[in-house]
Write a structure and sequence with these properties.
heterodimer, A: alpha+beta, Butyryl-CoA Dehydrogenase, subunit A, domain 3, seven-stranded mixed beta sheet, two-stranded antiparallel sheet, 12 helices, 12% strand, globular, B: alpha+beta, four-stranded antiparallel beta sheet, 11 helices
Amino acid sequence: MRFAFDADQLALRDAVRDLLAKECPPEVVRAAWPDGTDALGARKGEGARADAARLDRVWIALAEMGVLGVATSEAHGGLGMTPLDWVLVAEETGYAAVPQPFVETALVVAPLAAAADDPHGVVADLVAGNRLASALPLGTSHVPWGDRVTYLVRLDHRPGPAGAAPARGGSADTALGSAGDGSAGAGPDASSAGTAAVVGRAGVGSAGVGSVGAGPDVGSAGLGGTWVASRVDAGVTIGPEGRRDLADVLDPGRHVVTLGAWRSADQLGGPGDAAAAFDRGALAVAAQLVGLGRRMLDLTVGYVVERRQFGVPIGSFQAVKHHLADAALRLEFAAPAVYGAAWSLACGQPSAARDVSVAKALASDAARLTGRIALQGHGAIGYTTEYDLHLYLKRAEVLARSWGDAAWHRDRVASHLGI
Amino acid sequence: MDLTWSEGEEAFRAEARAWLEANLAAWRDSHDGRILSGDTAEGFAQHRDWERMLAADRWAVVSWPEEHGGRAASRWEWLIFEEEYYRAGAPPRITQNGIFLLAPTVFEFGNAEQRAHVLGRMARAEDLWCQGWSEPNAGSDLASLTCRARRDDDRGGWVLDGQKTWTTRGAFCTHLFGLFRTDPDSERHRGLTYLLVPLDLDGVTVRGFGRLDGDEGFAEVFFDGAFLPDDALPGGPVLGGVGEGWSVAMATTSSERGLTLRSPGRFTATADRLVDLYREHGRDDPRLRDRVVQGWMEAEAYRLQTLRTVTDDAEGRPAGARSSFTKLWWSELDVALHETALDVLGPAAELDGPWTKGWQFALSGPIYAGTNEIQRNIAAERVLGLPRK
């Protein structure tokens, strides 16, 4: 029994932490916001807004360190590391609110494609940082960094007894058609989607186009059912010019694009590969939420020690102390759940999926609570776009509800507990 | 990271499980299956029997050295024992304030004679210890305590005056460990001395009174010129140095707040029972199920956080003030688990039963061992670094 990371794991974390402290300060996160943010109050003054080129430098630096291949097998040019090796890296990318699809590209899609023998020849480019990937878990149609990703994968959960899954390599069209996951439901089809940007390499065809149907399949993700990963062969987006403006989305730095219609082509890997990909994503986002929580707590502690009212630092008031202690308490206990789930996933424990859900549920709630407390601790300054807090607060809120929100994951834990 | 137990640890678990299963049944049978609360006079005697059974087979204090009745169990084995203990449904320990709060202090500050005398008798439940800290006007503000111990060199001992209160199981215990002001001119944390006091001294009056749960689990202890001789027990009644009581006492507060007093096994067992309760009652209520799961997850998080804490401690990274987080977590978790159970039971929760009883006890968690307001202050000031004033 030993619940601690080894020296190599901590060294990798420290290296990523140092890199992101240098390359991904708040002004770089802010630079990821679409044009026009300034007019709505991005911080003015010297050094307030980074050159957009610095955004690319973050990704290049991560690629050069090898971090983008951390979860991908060595046979496909990655480092072949386990969740235990990269969970702290994910936490640091949360702390820095890295403005790229790190979880999706490096921890979900690249290793998934590699496990499926890279049928589309993308893994090398993903690991090298030459292209971005994204993933759509649980029926969501909102694509983070959808204006930049060129490889998109759906991760769907099909209710029903395990083992009823289509065979690996089977026709995705058949799988989708028979599972009735909403892909054949009503919604805008390709021809009516208007001035949509194209996601993926191919053009939009007319056959087998899916669309937004049923919502996330809450309640069906327990012991039964099967995971299916399928590449979105072509998709169309809705919204002006395929891109949302500031008023339309919670966290403009994520460049979310809504997929209005798509065509799912090849299935990527077998059900086990798809299930593992989902658990990696949920775990990694849970780690990012712990990192975001730490960031917001650090910002707030720094602020309440400096800010004086009634002649004293507001951090000396018991009401403020107790709020911050509550946030720290929730993070203190969410973090071991995340690390423990990383171990379970790394070792292939039978409880791994349940443990990932415990981690994601606790981390989601901890980060959301910390965000509210951080905002309250800052008072009005926190409620401005000039101050940095909102960058992290919005990212946390979005991630808390991505890859299954806390309620979805509690539901999955319940199924594992047999209730 | 390796979250598996070794073969030796699994063997230890199996041995503990088998012993508990056999002996719990035997103990219950010896009382005709009618086990009362350990916080009543009759129940206390039953539970003293249980403690003596534990001690006879060296299960009372597994982590202590063998010379004092333990098994020199590692911290990991101690956690395993606690898991098995509460999983088996074994009762709360009437010896806990001795073995978990006083004993670590005796190991650290006691002289050889005190260790030899106090620890073994404590482990065998021959002496039963209660904690004499709180006073009517010194609760959270413990340093304002006014119980006095005046030195009497002519008779060779200490003369005690004052009153302690909210003393858990004081009406049934034989001894009290407590803080007394030995320097009459001192203030606050200075001039205090940690004393070991037999409760059968002349001039000591113990009056039990009812707790919220109806048991006579509290007592107030009056000292009216009670004479505590230097030979009241081998090695003398002063633990640590005269006037050093505050720092000696603080050594036990970290045990109390940390995992020692309330290990995760206690709460994972309760959470598992809550899951069973929900299943057995066949309630199909998504909101209730959500709360059951939340409680189960928080107990699991406590288990994992403890594995981390114990590892860190073993590798030279002590928890320090972070032990306040631990106390906040288990005390608030315990209330939530029991509230949820009462909601699963529905109207039947009005009747007396283990969950109803447990709920009433859980309510005390955020109060004892340093109120949760004090713990939040400590966490904010000493972990987060916020200014005291």
